[in-house]
C-alpha cells in the first residue's frame, strides 16, 4: 500500500513539473490547453494548478471569451524561477557586489566589456558571419539554449525574425548589475552582423515572461 501511495505521489510531482515546464515554454495557458498537452483531464490539471498556486508558483488572470465565463489563464510567478537553472545566482551576485566595492562602477563596466567581447568571439565561432541570417540565428539559439536560455527563433512573413529566450539563467545577476542586460543588444548586433535593426520587445526584468528580440533586415541588405 505504501508503494502505491509513493508511486501516486511521484506521478503527481511529475505532472506538476510538466505543467511548470509547459508554462515556461509557452507562457500563459488555460487548463484545457494544458490538459490537451499532457493527455489528462482538465479537472486533474486544475487540481494541480491550485496546488501550485498554494506554493506561489503559479497565478492566473481572467481572459474574456466570446461565450461563457472568462477563462483562467495560468502563468508562472517569479517564485518559479528557482526551479530553473540560475547560473549560481547567489555566488554571482556576491561577486558582483565585491567587484563594485573593489573596482567601482567603472571597473565593473570594464569587466563586463571584456566578458561581452569573449561572448561575441565564442558565438561567432559557432555562428559565423558568412552564414545566412536564419542559419546564424539557429546556431545562436542552440548555443544560448545550451547555456540555459531556452532560446528559439520565429520567422515572420515580412522577413524579420523574433529571437525568443524563455528563461534567463543570469536573472539575479542582471538585477544586481544592469550592465549585463544592457550589453545584450550590442552582443547580438556584433554576432549577427551589420544591416540589421535589433530591438528588445519584451524583457524578463521588466516583468514579462520572456525576452523577445525583433531582428529586421534593413532594405538595402536584403
UniProtKB/TrEMBL annotation:
Residue span(s) of domain HTH arsR-type: 15-59
Keyword check for DNA-binding? yes
Keyword annotations for this protein, in alphabetical order, are:
DNA-binding
Superkingdom of this protein's organism: Bacteria
UniProt keyword annotation of DNA-binding present: yes
Q: Which InterPro entries match?
A: ArsR-like_HTH, HTH_ArsR_DNA-bd_dom, WH-like_DNA-bd_sf, WH_DNA-bd_sf
Which molecular-function annotation in GO is an example for this chain? DNA binding
Q: What is this protein called?
A: Transcriptional regulator
- Lineage, broadest ranks: Bacteria, Bacillati, Bacillota, Bacilli, Bacillales
